């Protein structure tokens, strides 16, 4: 047992309101530079949709992640193949797959000479500086805009029947949710494996995946290999860049900017302890076991055996305490509510999502059936045309089976197509709601609430705890950041001994393009 | 004429190699951030394929053939002693030379005509591409105009290069060569001279070590176990990611 600690995250999708504040916070701090304008280390996608960059989930195009081969796994981008493709990489997205960064010539509004027409601020390319037609943006398909071009092309619609897929886009039934994405800081990162220079590495202390800018030589294989397309190529200075999980903030005990600024408070950050010996075995397991196996290498921080192994590995007591208080551990392991995004890429992502219940909750039936309406209770919303929105809880799981969002779609996103994994989590979320509804409003009988909880294996105490961490959690409950022990190192990448008597630290050269 | 010849055939080569050695080490150690292939594939990918691939493949073969003629002249002459082998070698070399030429032309045209690529073009990029282009063009013209270069390189030019290595320069053979060959030799040393100041640096950091390293790379910034052990001495060497 080789216990290591990983700073890990949970995003609660039911709470995401799609405001993009996280993206803006990140952009303002890290990517507001020439060559990085198009990069959104944090982005929020509307699902269904093709995302950013367009169709990033389609690995037939981009060759990201790992694929299973007998008892082991193979890097899709390839080692020898990667070197052979070094002069021209056929699987690399280009700027047009993201969008051409632009601004507007605002000064024209003020400085234009008087004329017959109103002056306009024309869009200007931030690459060439010339006027351009805007064809795409980072969230061009926000809120299902351009559905025929974007949502209908979503790779996750595979496995749905044509009728199911079509039903999702009918105006009356239309359902969507937001998927905020940052780097997953994987346990088996494909970007690290694909970097010919060896510039990308995982920090042992907290598992943050970083690119050493001094070693990166722009071979660009990380862009291809990351199945989440979270490694970006800076076209200006010829270096790849990615989310750094705001490690300077984390080392100072602050939450990453995207998490700190999250309006919906959907984000949780904490330590997970995992068994590094079992990474390869886990990444090469059967498709159907992916979720369970990945969760099984996350170890119980209260287990004495685990604590002993962690201490033997030099993990500080403060980090162990943070692991025991970790909100991520509770969501992922204790309550079994969260799932990794696309586990089938086999990179063992360490960012987990609580699947959304809201688009699931209401079922819509096309009906003129007055009998059906009578069966609804008072709080059910009845549209008085032929569409019937059933939000009743009359049948405990009725709405899950006939919900607006096919479970298959969520399963394609979060559990490699295993609907049972999503279903149990959605049921748990529903059971907590019924329990709290019973406690606070009281129109659901205790027996029914208890029945729902019982079937999902939750106790009322657990349900209250889930409710507490979901709805009431304060800043320090959501972000449990272990101390970086700066008494041992001024900054994790520097050694105090090297910096004594010097002023400042960090990059001493301006990050300018070489000749 | 003799002074100019001495400058071009003796001074320039020594200068070039000296500047190359100092420049490369200095840049790699002092400004590693600037060492990059500066790929522009992200901005334009279709035309790059027709430029970059023939350019690099041609370059690798041509470079290896030149190095072979320089390092193993006797072997090459022995190989060339059968006309069929000589023909095979020359035709192969010329084919890759043309590929090299075609690629460099395609890259030059792409760089000049594509507005996005022009936005990331420095004056040094243009200088390097022009220098390389003429160097390749001259090489191809020599291959056509002064037949069986692989043999006379090995027999006449290789001794000149070795005389430079032995710090006892003999330029008589080169002085007797046609002007175009002389220009090609001086051009080659110019490429060596400016290499540390250009994007050609990426040639020296070609990632062959990738084939040997394990997939995953985990770096512990400090050794907590040693640090917490009062018996271990304070370690001033931080781990490196190289």
UniProtKB/TrEMBL annotation, chain A:
<protein>
    <submittedName>
        <fullName>Nitrate reductase subunit beta</fullName>
    </submittedName>
</protein>
<dbReference type="GO" id="GO:0009061">
    <property type="term" value="P:anaerobic respiration"/>
</dbReference>
<dbReference type="Pfam" id="PF14711">
    <property type="entry name" value="Nitr_red_bet_C"/>
</dbReference>
<keyword id="KW-0004">4Fe-4S</keyword>
<dbReference type="GO" id="GO:0042126">
    <property type="term" value="P:nitrate metabolic process"/>
</dbReference>
<dbReference type="InterPro" id="IPR038262">
    <property type="entry name" value="Nitr_red_bet_C_sf"/>
</dbReference>
<dbReference type="InterPro" id="IPR017896">
    <property type="entry name" value="4Fe4S_Fe-S-bd"/>
</dbReference>
<keyword id="KW-0249">Electron transport</keyword>
<keyword id="KW-0813">Transport</keyword>
<dbReference type="GO" id="GO:0009055">
    <property type="term" value="F:electron transfer activity"/>
</dbReference>
<dbReference type="GO" id="GO:0009325">
    <property type="term" value="C:nitrate reductase complex"/>
</dbReference>
<dbReference type="InterPro" id="IPR029263">
    <property type="entry name" value="Nitr_red_bet_C"/>
</dbReference>
<dbReference type="InterPro" id="IPR006547">
    <property type="entry name" value="NO3_Rdtase_bsu"/>
</dbReference>
<feature type="domain" description="4Fe-4S ferredoxin-type">
    <location>
        <begin position="174"/>
        <end position="205"/>
    </location>
</feature>
<feature type="domain" description="4Fe-4S ferredoxin-type">
    <location>
        <begin position="7"/>
        <end position="36"/>
    </location>
</feature>
<keyword id="KW-0677">Repeat</keyword>
<dbReference type="GO" id="GO:0030313">
    <property type="term" value="C:cell envelope"/>
</dbReference>
<dbReference type="GO" id="GO:0051538">
    <property type="term" value="F:3 iron, 4 sulfur cluster binding"/>
</dbReference>
<keyword id="KW-0479">Metal-binding</keyword>
<dbReference type="GO" id="GO:0008940">
    <property type="term" value="F:nitrate reductase activity"/>
</dbReference>
<dbReference type="GO" id="GO:0016020">
    <property type="term" value="C:membrane"/>
</dbReference>
<dbReference type="GO" id="GO:0051539">
    <property type="term" value="F:4 iron, 4 sulfur cluster binding"/>
</dbReference>
From TrEMBL, chain B:
<keyword id="KW-0812">Transmembrane</keyword>
<feature type="transmembrane region" description="Helical">
    <location>
        <begin position="176"/>
        <end position="195"/>
    </location>
</feature>
<feature type="domain" description="NarG-like">
    <location>
        <begin position="6"/>
        <end position="220"/>
    </location>
</feature>
<keyword id="KW-0560">Oxidoreductase</keyword>
<dbReference type="GO" id="GO:0019645">
    <property type="term" value="P:anaerobic electron transport chain"/>
</dbReference>
<dbReference type="Pfam" id="PF02665">
    <property type="entry name" value="Nitrate_red_gam"/>
</dbReference>
<keyword id="KW-0249">Electron transport</keyword>
<feature type="binding site" description="axial binding residue">
    <location>
        <position position="66"/>
    </location>
    <ligand>
        <name>heme b 2</name>
    </ligand>
</feature>
<keyword id="KW-0472">Membrane</keyword>
<dbReference type="InterPro" id="IPR023234">
    <property type="entry name" value="NarG-like_domain"/>
</dbReference>
<feature type="transmembrane region" description="Helical">
    <location>
        <begin position="84"/>
        <end position="109"/>
    </location>
</feature>
<dbReference type="InterPro" id="IPR003816">
    <property type="entry name" value="Nitrate_red_gam"/>
</dbReference>
<feature type="transmembrane region" description="Helical">
    <location>
        <begin position="130"/>
        <end position="149"/>
    </location>
</feature>
<dbReference type="GO" id="GO:0042128">
    <property type="term" value="P:nitrate assimilation"/>
</dbReference>
<keyword id="KW-0813">Transport</keyword>
<keyword id="KW-0349">Heme</keyword>
<keyword id="KW-0408">Iron</keyword>
<dbReference type="InterPro" id="IPR051936">
    <property type="entry name" value="Heme-iron_electron_transfer"/>
</dbReference>
<dbReference type="GO" id="GO:0020037">
    <property type="term" value="F:heme binding"/>
</dbReference>
<keyword id="KW-0534">Nitrate assimilation</keyword>
<dbReference type="GO" id="GO:0005886">
    <property type="term" value="C:plasma membrane"/>
</dbReference>
<dbReference type="GO" id="GO:0009055">
    <property type="term" value="F:electron transfer activity"/>
</dbReference>
């Amino acid at each position: 047992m080789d216990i290591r600690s990983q700073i890990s995250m949970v995003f609660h999708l039911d709470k995401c309101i799609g405001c993009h504040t996280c993206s803006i916070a990140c952009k303002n701090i890290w990517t507001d530079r020439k060559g990085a304008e198009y990069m959104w280390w944090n982005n929020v996608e509307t699902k269904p949709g093709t995302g950013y960059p367009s169709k990033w989930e389609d690995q037939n195009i981009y060759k990201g992640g790992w694929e299973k081969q007998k008892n082991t796994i193979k890097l899709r981008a390839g080692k020898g193949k990667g070197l052979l493709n070094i002069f021209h990489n056929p699987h690399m997205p280009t700027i047009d797959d993201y969008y051409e960064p632009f601004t507007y010539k605002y000064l024209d509004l003020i400085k234009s000479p008087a004329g017959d027409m109103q002056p306009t601020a024309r869009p200007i390319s931030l690459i060439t500086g010339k006027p351009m037609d805007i064809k795409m943006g980072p969230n061009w398909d926000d809120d299902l805009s351009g559905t025929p071009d974007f949502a209908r092309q979503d790779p996750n619609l595979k496995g749905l029947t044509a009728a199911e897929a079509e039903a999702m886009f009918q105006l009356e039934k239309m359902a969507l949710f937001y998927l905020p994405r940052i780097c997953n800081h994987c346990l088996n990162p494909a970007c690290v494996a694909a970097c010919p220079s060896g510039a990308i590495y995982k920090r042992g202390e907290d598992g943050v995946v970083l690119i050493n800018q001094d070693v990166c030589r722009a071979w660009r294989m990380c862009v291809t290999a990351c199945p989440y397309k979270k490694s970006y190529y800076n076209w200006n200075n010829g270096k790849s860049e990615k989310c750094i999980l705001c490690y300077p903030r984390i080392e100072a005990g602050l939450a990453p900017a995207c998490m700190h600024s999250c309006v919906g408070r959907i984000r949780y950050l904490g330590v997970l302890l995992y068994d590094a010996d079992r990474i390869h075995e886990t990444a090469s397991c059967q498709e159907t076991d992916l979720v369970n196996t990945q969760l099984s290498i996350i170890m119980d921080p209260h287990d004495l055996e685990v604590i002993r192994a962690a201490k033997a590995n030099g993990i500080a007591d403060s980090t162990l305490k943070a692991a025991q208080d970790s909100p991520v551990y509770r969501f992922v392991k204790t309550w079994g509510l969260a799932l990794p995004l696309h586990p089938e890429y086999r990179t063992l992502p360490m960012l987990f999502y609580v699947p959304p219940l809201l688009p699931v909750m209401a079922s819509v039936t096309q009906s003129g059936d007055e009998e059906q309406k009578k069966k609804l209770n008072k709080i059910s919303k009845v549209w008085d045309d032929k569409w019937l929105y059933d939000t009743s809880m009359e049948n405990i799981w009725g709405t899950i089976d006939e919900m607006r969002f096919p479970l298959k779609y969520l399963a394609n996103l979060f559990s490699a197509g295993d609907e049972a994994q999503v279903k149990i989590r959605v049921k748990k979320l529903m059971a907590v709601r019924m329990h709290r509804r019973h406690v606070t409003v009281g129109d659901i009988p205790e027996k029914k609430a208890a029945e729902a909880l019982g079937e999902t294996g939750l106790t009322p105490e657990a349900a209250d705890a889930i409710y507490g961490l979901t709805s009431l959690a304060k800043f320090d409950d959501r972000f449990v950041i272990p101390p970086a022990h700066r008494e041992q190192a001024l900054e994790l990448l520097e050694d105090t001994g090297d910096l004594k008597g010097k002023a400042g630290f960090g990059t001493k050269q301006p990050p300018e393009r070489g000749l | 004429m003799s002074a100019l010849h001495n400058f071009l055939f003796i001074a320039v080569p020594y200068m070039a190699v000296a500047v190359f050695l100092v420049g490369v080490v200095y840049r790699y150690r002092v400004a590693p951030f600037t060492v990059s292939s500066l790929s522009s594939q992200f901005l334009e990918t279709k035309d790059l394929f027709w430029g970059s691939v023939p350019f690099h493949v041609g370059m690798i073969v041509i470079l290896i053939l030149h190095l072979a003629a320089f390092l193993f002249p006797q072997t090459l002459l022995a190989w060339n002693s059968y006309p069929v082998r000589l023909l095979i070698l020359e035709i192969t070399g010329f084919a890759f030379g043309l590929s090299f030429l075609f690629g460099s032309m395609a890259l030059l045209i792409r760089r000049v005509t594509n507005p996005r690529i022009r936005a990331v073009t420095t004056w040094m990029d243009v200088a390097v591409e022009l220098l390389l282009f003429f160097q390749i063009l001259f090489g191809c013209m020599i291959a056509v105009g002064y037949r069986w270069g692989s043999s006379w390189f090995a027999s006449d030019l290789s001794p000149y290069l070795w005389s430079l290595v032995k710090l006892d320069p003999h330029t008589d053979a080169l002085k007797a060569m046609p002007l175009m060959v002389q220009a090609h030799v001086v051009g080659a040393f110019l490429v060596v001279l400016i290499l540390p100041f250009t994007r050609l640096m990426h040639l020296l950091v070609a990632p062959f070590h990738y084939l040997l390293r394990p997939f995953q790379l985990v770096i512990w910034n400090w050794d907590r176990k040693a640090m917490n052990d009062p018996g271990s001495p304070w370690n001033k060497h931080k781990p490196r990611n190289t």
